[in-house]
Design goal:
Number of strands: 27
Radius of gyration: 37 Å
Number of helices: 26
Helix content: 25-40%
Structural class: alpha+beta
């Protein structure tokens, strides 16, 4: 990246290429904790300069200011240029990835010494390019790629040649704007120089005096319209600039109280494509031209409006963020409260956080040491928006920097606001908690396997002493941990007010808080690969006092809702019962026991269905999850028959997997040796015939060893190893087992291993499968329940969920291919009896 400085800086600015990273970034009024704003192709870590104890503001040299006193006197525009007017389309409409790639590729090939005139240099950079956007990109990329600190300049140079202008840049006598203009005009591309004010490194959010912010940039006429280019800002950032006036008081919900030392910051090379052809509606937030026409807006703004505009960084626009609350950079609070609300079309992929600062100098005094400094800012995710609710602990001047994380990316500085609190509330209380992920479901919630079903916003208000239930769909198995918190109560005092249960794939969190107040609900999860619980979702709760009106009668609609709820208890369909519960809840009626019974029945039916489904699916993970839920429920003993069946199937699947382990772990050389036999011994051929027979191959494909070799050579889904890995005994026909048994009968394990390691491994696998079927037949004979395996195979895909009639369920496939009849009348009779007992106890 460019290593020149438009103005000679007082500090030693490093030309080293850097990729600034970290929780904060950028320039202009930032703390020394901040790093540079990350461009799309930023390179390397930033170098932090030791902070100065004092920053002499009047003598401060803003590294991001162009040298407006360039020794080369060139007109800002040339005769015949199109008049400045707003472009008819946006940057995304005209700039293609191919243009960027081709322009950058050409720029890298051209060295400053390759041309003695700007006309020759422009020819080298743009020759053969048909699109003017591509030509401008090549010029832009070349200009910002010149590291003037490292170029070796000859003693004698042609006046106003590219080399001489670059040397002047090194000396602080020329600028990126100038050399970009000269190259564009040499390429016959209209290019204007724009003078004005720019919120650069020396800018403080809320600043009203702009004279120290004079700057200049370019506009180029491409694709039929004028568009901005700011070469200096595209290749330079300032890291760690601070006036020394701010104290960091809170970050991510934690008190800090850290004085930011004064520092001029450090210049770092980077590449930020945002400043190549940015849209005028965004660019005006940072740059204000002297000539209003060069705002390129349909409705130009005034200087006062520019001063009042929020301080928005490039990432603010990259994240498609918009300000929903008051769009001013200075917000005044008369009552100790402040709200900043942002929205984005991609808000579901963004997580936002903040840093809150206090200005000792402008406030008149440091913040009191007696004031608790954490949990005074809450980040609320709600209705596609993110709100920052601020409660000021004391009057004064504050600043909040808002940061965002795009899913899978690094933290980016989005915007900043100056906050003036004139009066703080005497009884102000901090929030009960303020976690990194904020309040409300967010993308981390869904990544963790939880999808909100009932409460999508961050704030929940309810009556104390009345239960509220929050539901999530679990998209994958995770352990869940919940915690209720209050700003001055211990968590162990609140643990009895929150309960968690999992029903099928639904997570239900119950809240029954007996007193009014503001609470926080923290939801933590732990997946199979996680070492510890992670906070993935939180809710801000307000429990209000409120009593239900007691009446001695119920209306006709209320009686109907209660009767329908009672009637739903006779159904075996959870959807019917849930519909009756929802209708009952609308009337806020007293529960005389039927509501609890209905919820219990839904849980019981859902657990039963989960067990039957997992048995039929014969999926290890589904079985493990359904068994975990059933065993941890209060219906464990009532579901014991289904639990036992599921455990049998799980054990059988795990046993089959164990059989396959030795084959899957075989050395490839062993398999190749087995496959390459030209005339194998009879035992080798018979063992492989038995193996492929169990895998379902037709006998005519196994008689010739060459056909067996072909099957062994197959790759992908049809490969031998993959078929062994996915093998399930439930799909094996009885005649196949008998054939495989006949193939193996003349031999034993020692004979197979003595022939070859591969032959022995396949023999053990096939023999284990055959033996399991033999044991199953003996077991059936003892119970006098012989069945045809062919019939069982035809029922493999039948559903175990939907009932054949009111009394009988479909068959559940057994662990070795047999189909047992399990209905609500026999397997789950005890569970139904429990529900019936509740029904019998109902009094209308």
């Amino acid at each position: 990246m460019g290593g020149g400085a438009s103005k000679p800086a007082k500090q030693n600015t490093s030309p080293e290429e850097a990729k600034p990273r970290g929780p904060t970034e950028g320039v202009g009024g930032s703390s020394s904790r901040k790093t540079a704003e990350q461009g799309p192709q930023s390179l390397g870590p930033p170098q932090e300069e030791e902070a100065e104890e004092k920053l002499d503001i009047p003598d401060y040299i803003d590294i991001l200011q162009e040298n407006t006193d360039d020794v080369i006197d060139i007109p800002v525009v040339q005769d015949g240029y199109p008049p400045p007017k707003p472009a008819s389309n946006r940057k995304s409409d005209i700039l293609r990835a191919a243009d960027i790639a081709e322009g950058d590729k050409r720029a890298k090939k051209i060295k400053p010494e390759d041309a003695t005139t700007f006309e020759d240099l422009a020819e080298l950079l743009t020759k053969g390019m048909s699109r003017d956007v591509q030509q401008v990109r090549a010029i832009f990329s070349w200009v910002i790629g010149q590291n003037v600190q490292e170029i070796k300049f000859p003693e004698n140079m042609i006046i106003n040649s590219p080399m001489q202008i670059l040397k002047r840049m090194k000396e602080g006598k020329s600028s990126y704007t100038t050399i970009f203009t000269l190259l564009c005009r040499a390429a016959k591309i209209p290019c204007a120089i724009i003078h004005g004010f720019a919120k650069s490194a020396g800018y403080e959010v809320g600043q009203t005096e702009l004279e120290n912010l004079r700057n200049m940039w370019n506009a180029v006429y491409v694709n039929g319209g004028w568009r901005f280019v700011f070469p200096l800002w595209a290749c330079r950032v300032v890291v760690g600039h601070s006036t020394g006036k701010w104290t960091l008081v809170e970050a991510k919900g934690k008190g800090v109280r850290e004085k930011m030392p004064a520092s001029t910051g450090e210049s770092v090379s980077t590449l930020n494509d945002y400043y190549f052809l940015p849209d005028a509606e965004e660019f005006v937030f940072r740059c204000f031209p002297d000539n209003p026409e060069w705002q390129l807006l349909r409705k130009p703004i005034s200087k006062d409006e520019f001063v009042e505009m929020p301080y928005c960084r490039p990432s603010f626009f990259d994240f498609k963020v918009k300000i929903v609350s008051k769009p001013k950079c200075v917000l005044i609070s008369e009552d100790g409260l402040c709200n900043i609300c942002l929205k984005s079309s991609i808000i579901e992929d963004i997580m936002m956080t903040y840093e809150l600062f206090y200005n000792d100098e402008e406030s008149g005094s440091p913040i009191s040491s007696e004031i608790q400094l954490d949990k005074y800012v809450a980040v609320l995710n709600q209705n596609g928006k993110v709100a920052f609710n601020i409660r000021f602990p004391s009057p004064g001047v504050y600043k909040i920097d808002v940061h965002g994380i795009l899913k899978g990316d690094a933290m980016s500085w989005l915007c900043s606001f100056k906050l003036i609190c004139k009066n703080a509330r005497v009884d102000i209380k901090p929030f009960p908690c303020n976690p990194d992920v904020g309040f409300g479901p967010n993308f981390k919630t869904e990544l963790a396997g939880l999808k909100a079903e009932t409460h999508h916003d961050s704030f929940i208000s309810f009556h104390s002493k009345r239960e509220t239930e929050i539901k999530f769909t679990m998209t994958k198995y995770v352990q869940v941990q919940t915690k209720l918190v209050h700003h001055n109560m211990k968590s162990h005092q609140l643990k009895d007010f929150v309960s968690t249960r999992v029903v099928g794939n639904q997570l239900c969190i119950g809240l029954a808080i007996p007193q009014k107040g503001e609470f926080g609900l923290q939801i933590n999860t732990k997946g199979k690969e996680d070492r510890e619980f992670q906070n993935v979702c939180n809710y801000l709760l307000e429990a209000q006092e409120g009593e239900r009106k007691h009446r001695t009668y119920e209306t006709a609609s209320e009686k109907k809702a209660r009767a329908e709820l009672k009637g739903s208890l006779q159904s075996k369909d959870p959807i019917v019962i849930k519909r009756a519960i929802d209708q009952f809840a609308k009337f806020d009626l007293d529960d005389k026991g039927e509501l609890k019974k209905a919820k219990d029945k839904i849980e019981f039916l859902t657990l039963s269905k989960g067990l039957r489904d997992s048995v039929n699916r014969r999926n290890v993970e589904a079985l493990e999850e359904s068994l975990h839920q059933a065993k941890s429920s209060k219906f464990q003993h009532k579901l014991q028959s289904l639990i036992q069946k599921a455990e049998d199937v799980l054990m059988d699947l795990q046993k089959t997997k164990k059989y396959a382990h030795e084959i899957l772990e075989m050395n490839q050389v062993t398999i190749t040796e087995l496959r390459n036999y030209q005339t194998p011994k009879p035992i080798v051929h018979d063992v492989m015939k038995a193996t492929f027979t169990l895998l379902g191959e037709r006998q005519e494909m196994l008689e010739d060893w060459r056909d067996v070799q072909y099957l062994m050579r197959r790759t992908g889904k049809g490969s031998l190893m993959n078929r062994i890995k996915k093998f399930d005994k439930v799909h094996v026909e009885e005649n196949c087992v008998n054939l495989a048994s006949q193939f193996l009968k003349p031999y034993d394990e020692d004979m197979a291993h003595g022939t070859s390691a591969g032959c022995g491994t396949f023999y053990v696998w096939a023999n284990n499968i055959v033996s399991d079927f033999t044991k199953a037949e003996l077991n059936d004979a003892r119970h006098q329940a012989p069945r045809s395996r062919t019939r069982h195979h035809s029922n493999i895909n039948s559903s175990a969920v939907g009932p054949k009639n009111e009394e009988e369920d479909e068959g559940v496939v057994s662990d070795h291919g047999q189909s047992g009849q399990f209905s609500d009348e026999n397997v789950d009779q005890s569970g139904e009896n429990q529900i019936q007992e509740l029904d019998d106890g109902y009094q209308s």
